[in-house]
């Protein structure tokens, strides 16, 4: 059977970590953080700091694991090495069916949203246009484009990841530096740090909804910070991955957290809090005039597409990571790797379909009320789910890795478990009853996975029995 080749170096791996995480999230969720903290700038920054700290701790913990385990798909490899094949299978099933495609589907819509805003201008675009047929068509086009880049020219996908990672820092660094300087010079930044309680009082008087809590704000940052684990999905394709992947995870996590915090401060220096809360934080770009605002929005599109490309890398390989172990849907079919492109095309095609389904679910649930009260936020809840899934892996790591020093063996995993608890609590505060409907769908998907696991187990047992009972034939 064909094997995936080592084709990505350290710099590409760092760009994969940074490029997958930094994209739409900081633009998409900054307004939600403001709303949940009722415009309190300090609380908002603290939410970004806590979310970033959790990501850094988790990335550091998994960086240690990356020095010890390497196979096909990092996340699944770690689960198999520490918790056994059965648990690894269900982890792989979840990330292949829900986690990767759900994030990818949301990113496709976000990329389309910023495309429409960049072309027509923020003030000229109605909320309806951002969920209309044009936006949906652009989102579908982006999904298909990234699919073809990753399946036909996977090396090009790596170059796209590097180039878009460099480009996406332009608007972030520009807003962080210029926004902070301007905000300090004209007093806007100082005013926004002092106005939080006044906004909360005004919302109370006018009867407008208040934000939930700091926990809810941290939950908002989950989408923005998530994606670093996706880089482990290509560990079999990273040169010297036991060295390069841990370095990429740690360095990438630090860069991401600092960038987000500084960008958030810069945004607060460019607009009044009330406007940023009600009209979106990207309206801060209008401070520089329509021409510069348009350029920034086009750079954001590139940023989003870079993240979408990285997520599609993982989505196209998700089913393959199971099939390579003889598990999941039709292992013989989805374990095939094309000799000319060195890509699992069958797995990639199914990954594209799953991304399309989750994109439709997100748009239908968030904007069209297709599912009524049974809808849930697929941009956050699948991400929150991954944290409790990590816990058995972390506990087993502490029990089994006796050769490590106490900090790497106990301190980092313990801090990660605390971080997982914070994220679950944040989800409960922010999503309330939506958690229940999501858990029902999650359970149904996992039950389908369990049936496939049972079926493949029986098939393997039957095949082994037939091979054992086959008599030798004399020549």
Q: What is the strand tally?
A: 0
Distance between the first and last residues' Cα: 28 Å
Strand content: under 5%
**Helical proportion?**
over 70%
User: What name does CATH use for the topology?
Assistant: Amino acid/polyamine transporter I
What is the CATH architecture descriptor? Answer: Up-down Bundle
What structural class is derived from the secondary structure elements? Answer: mainly alpha
Shape: globular
Overall pLDDT score: 83
Molecular structure report:
This protein has helices at 10-21, 25-36, 41-66, 74-83, 85-120, 133-152, 154-186, 188-194, 196-206, 214-225, 241-268, 273-279, 290-323, 331-334, 345-367, 381-400, 406-431, 434-469. The protein has 475 residues and is an all-alpha fold. Helix 3 crosses helix 10. The model has no long low-confidence stretch (mean pLDDT 83).
Describe how the helices and strands are arranged.
Layout: H1 10-21, H2 25-36, H3 41-66, H4 74-83, H5 85-120, H6 133-152, H7 154-186, H8 188-194, H9 196-206, H10 214-225, H11 241-268, H12 273-279, H13 290-323, H14 331-334, H15 345-367, H16 381-400, H17 406-431, H18 434-469
Helix pairs in contact: 1-7, 1-11, 1-13, 2-10, 2-12, 3-10, 3-11, 3-17, 4-5, 4-16, 5-6, 5-13, 5-15, 5-16, 5-18, 6-7, 6-13, 6-15, 7-11, 7-13, 10-17, 13-15, 16-17
């Amino acid at each position: 059977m064909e094997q995936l080749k080592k084709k990505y170096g350290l710099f590409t791996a760092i760009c994969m970590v940074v490029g997958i995480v930094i994209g739409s999230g900081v633009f998409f969720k900054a307004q939600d953080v403001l709303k949940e903290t009722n415009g309190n700038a300090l609380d908002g920054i603290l939410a970004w700091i806590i979310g970033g700290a959790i990501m850094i701790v988790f990335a550091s913990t998994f960086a240690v694991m990356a020095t010890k385990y390497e196979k096909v798909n990092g996340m699944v490899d770690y689960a198999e090495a520490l918790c056994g094949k059965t648990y690894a299978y269900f982890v792989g099933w979840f990330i292949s069916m829900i986690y990767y495609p759900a994030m990818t589907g949301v990113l496709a819509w976000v990329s389309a949203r910023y495309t429409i805003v960049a072309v027509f201008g923020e003030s000229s675009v109605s909320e309806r246009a951002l969920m209309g047929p044009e936006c949906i068509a652009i989102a579908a086009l982006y999904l298909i484009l990234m699919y073809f880049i990753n399946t036909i020219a996977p090396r090009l996908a790596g170059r796209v990841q590097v180039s878009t990672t460099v480009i996406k820092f332009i608007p972030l660094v520009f807003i962080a530096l210029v926004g902070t300087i301007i905000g300090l010079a004209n007093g806007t930044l100082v005013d926004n740090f002092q106005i939080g309680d006044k906004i909360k009082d005004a919302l109370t008087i006018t009867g407008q909804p208040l934000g939930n809590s700091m926990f809810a704000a941290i939950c908002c940052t989950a989408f923005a910070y998530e994606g670093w684990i996706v880089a482990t999905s290509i560990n079999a394709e990273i040169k010297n991955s036991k060295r390069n992947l841990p370095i990429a995870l740690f360095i990438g996590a630090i860069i991401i957290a600092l960038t987000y915090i500084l960008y958030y401060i810069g945004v607060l220096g460019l607009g009044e809090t009330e406007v940023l809360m009600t009209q979106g934080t990207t309206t801060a770009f209008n401070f520089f005039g329509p021409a510069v605002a348009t350029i920034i929005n086009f750079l954001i599109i590139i940023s989003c597409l870079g993240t979408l490309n990285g997520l599609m890398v993982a989505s196209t390989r998700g089913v393959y990571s199971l099939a390579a172990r003889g598990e999941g849907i039709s292992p013989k079919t989805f374990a095939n790797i094309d000799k000319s492109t060195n890509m699992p095309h069958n797995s990639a095609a199914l990954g594209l379909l799953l991304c399309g389904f989750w994109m439709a679910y997100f748009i239908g649930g968030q904007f069209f009320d297709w599912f009524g009260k049974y809808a849930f936020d697929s941009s956050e809840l699948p991400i929150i789910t991954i944290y409790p899934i990590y816990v058995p892996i972390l506990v087993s790591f502490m029990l089994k890795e006796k050769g490590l020093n106490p900090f790497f063996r106990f301190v980092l995993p313990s801090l990660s478990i605390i971080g997982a608890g914070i994220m679950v609590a944040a989800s409960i505060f922010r999503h309330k009853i939506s958690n229940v409907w999501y858990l029902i769908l999650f359970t149904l998907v996992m039950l389908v996975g369990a049936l496939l696991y049972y079926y493949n187990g029986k098939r393997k047992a039957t095949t082994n029995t037939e091979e054992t009972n086959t008599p030798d034939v004399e020549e």
